[in-house]
Design goal:
alpha/beta, Nucleotidyltransferase, domain 5, 6 strands
C-alpha cells in the first residue's frame, strides 16, 4: 500500500521584485492530524494564534519559533529553499516541492499537495508539472492559510527564513539553530 504524504506549501518574497524568494514545505504522513493539533496548541500557547507571520507581533513570533524548536515531532517535516534573482515564482515553487518529495521519498508514496493561494485553474497545471518532475502526486489544491495550522506553519517558516536571510540578528540565530537541530532543512543543499 502506498504511503500517503501531505505537503503544505507557502512562499514569500514576490514583493522584492525577484531579489529574494523563499519557498517552504511542510510534509506529513499518517501523523498529520496529530501535527495539526500540535501546531494549533503551539499557536495558542505562544500567543501567535491563527495570524499570518507578517501580522504577528515580534515577541509572539519568537515565542512561536522557540516552541517549534522544542518540539521533536516536527523534526524532518519542515523544508525550505531560498532563491535570489528570479521572478519565475511558480516554477521554482514547483521545483522545490519536487526536491522535497525526492528527499522524503519512501517507496510507493502518493502525495496531496496544498499550495497557499493557488488558483483553481493552476491546480491541474502544478500537479502535472510535479508529476513530470518525478513526484508521485495524487492531487494538488489551493488552500488559504487561515484554514489550516500546517499551512500557517509553512507561512511562519517562510517568514523566519526570510527574516534570517535579510539579517534580523535574533531571528537569524533562531533560523540557524533550527538548521543545526534538523528541525528545518534547506533542500537546495540536497
Amino acid at each position: 500500500m502506498a504511503a500517503k504524504l501531505y505537503c503544505y506549501v507557502d512562499e514569500s518574497g514576490q514583493d522584492t521584485q525577484g531579489r529574494l524568494f523563499v519557498v517552504s514545505v511542510v510534509v506529513t504522513g499518517s501523523e498529520r492530524a496529530h501535527l495539526q493539533r500540535l501546531c494549533a496548541q503551539i499557536e495558542d500557547e505562544s500567543g501567535k494564534g491563527e495570524r499570518k507571520w507578517s501580522k504577528t507581533a515580534r515577541t509572539r513570533r519568537i515565542a512561536y519559533v522557540l516552541a517549534l524548536l522544542a518540539q521533536p515531532d516536527l523534526t524532518g517535516k519542515l523544508y525550505f529553499e531560498v532563491f535570489e534573482d528570479t521572478k519565475d515564482y511558480l516554477q521554482v515553487t514547483v521545483e522545490t516541492v519536487a526536491r522535497v518529495l525526492a528527499a522524503k521519498e519512501a517507496a510507493g508514496y502518493s502525495a496531496t499537495v496544498f499550495v497557499d493561494g493557488l488558483s483553481r485553474p493552476l491546480e491541474r497545471a502544478v500537479g502535472l508539472h510535479l508529476r513530470r518532475l518525478g513526484a508521485h502526486v495524487k492531487k494538488t489544491r489551493g488552500l488559504d492559510e487561515v484554514n489550516d495550522p500546517l499551512m500557517r506553519l509553512a507561512d511562519a517558516v517562510c517568514g523566519l527564513v526570510r527574516a534570517g536571510w535579510e539579517g534580523d540578528p535574533e531571528l537569524h540565530a533562531l533560523w540557524r539553530q533550527g538548521l543545526s537541530q534538523g528541525v528545518w532543512q534547506d533542500v537546495s543543499r540536497t
